UniProtKB/TrEMBL annotation:
Transmembrane segments: none annotated. GO terms for cellular component: nucleus. It comes from the Eukaryota. It comes from Oppiella nova. This is C2H2-type domain-containing protein.
Length: 173
């Protein structure tokens, strides 16, 4: 017979704390991690680097830690594959690099009929599905431009290069 204590522990393993922010799908088992995550949405930067008068501030402990290790301590993870020697500030990035570049691992498969392509990153699979199968386009909403892009970052680049420079030139006249 199970005790109440064991039943409660079993139930808690499935309990998640969800982010309150609309369209954010972040969830965690720990309240403290959720609280730190939610600082991202509020742009509250309360984690300050005190390393030799740096004074940069970050929204999370993780971001501060990555800053300290990569900038101030110059910690690098080096790819030891053949003569690659590429360097990364995160161990996770090194592992991803090895699996996708050197081992050519493609873990994410497109399940669309007659496609079946594989991708190293989930984001690339989603981008492929949006662009190829769903024909998703990002449209420039600047004045009467209406130029379309397959990738959101290309739209952002277009806006900053074309329209924001245009706008700055207009202000200078």
């Amino acid at each position: 017979m199970l005790s109440n204590h064991n039943t409660i522990n079993t139930l808690n393993t499935y309990h998640y704390f969800h982010c309150f922010w609309p369209k954010c799908h972040f969830k965690t088992h720990r309240k403290d991690i959720l609280a730190e995550h939610q600082l991202i949405h509020s742009n509250s930067k309360q984690f300050k680097c005190d390393f030799h008068n740096c004074n940069k501030v970050y929204t999370s402990k993780v971001s501060l830690f990555l800053h300290r290790t990569s900038v101030h301590l110059n910690v690098r993870y080096v790819c030891d594959w053949s003569e690659c020697r590429k360097q990364f500030t995160r161990k996770r990035s090194l592992h991803h690099h090895k699996s996708s570049v050197h081992l050519n691992e493609r873990k994410f498969k497109c399940n669309e009929e007659n496609c079946g392509k594989y991708f190293a990153e989930k984001s690339n699979l989603i981008q492929h599905q949006n662009n190829v199968h769903l024909n998703v386009r990002y449209v420039c909403d600047w004045s009467e431009c209406r130029k379309q892009f397959a990738r959101k970052r290309h739209l952002k680049q277009h806006k900053s290069c074309v329209h924001l420079n245009e706008n700055m030139a207009y202000k200078l006249i």
